[in-house]
Amino acid sequence: MKTNLIIIFCVMSSLLVSAQKKETKLTGTYALVAVDNILADGGRVHLYGEAPQGLLIFDGQGHYALQIFSRGRQKFAANDKSKGTDEENRVAVKGSNAHFGTYAIDEANGTITFNIQDASFPNWEGTQQKRPFTIIGNIFKYTVPAPTTGGAVTGEVVWRKVE
Fold first, then answer.
1. Taking residues 18-23, what's their average pLDDT?
2. What is the pTM of this model?
């Protein structure tokens, strides 16, 4: 009887641990490679400059956090965020993008859905953003059908997995 209880306990513990983890091929940390808008004529606009900085983290429980920044952003003259000028605030907002929440992968359709809890672009808060993606080696790339810049463009974001 004691052996049966131990076996049942081990099986139930394994099932509980499996249910709690959502390890995927995306799980891990990624460094930003590029974030561009693709124009109708095929031209590219580097939204955050030639060398943007960013980090994207997918955990094993289905949560993510994403941050993108322009390199060399202007510092606030007052050294106090609450005292930034209109221009300093405009440049700071334009030079950054961040959001976090949960994610879901649809392998069959090759899409990832970001369930955005909070975002630096308030219009995205509480929304779902579905994006086609590819993974080739350690490169994760997705497209953004409706970028925050608006207009008839498509966003393309490329990340490299940090080993």
1. 50
2. 0.81
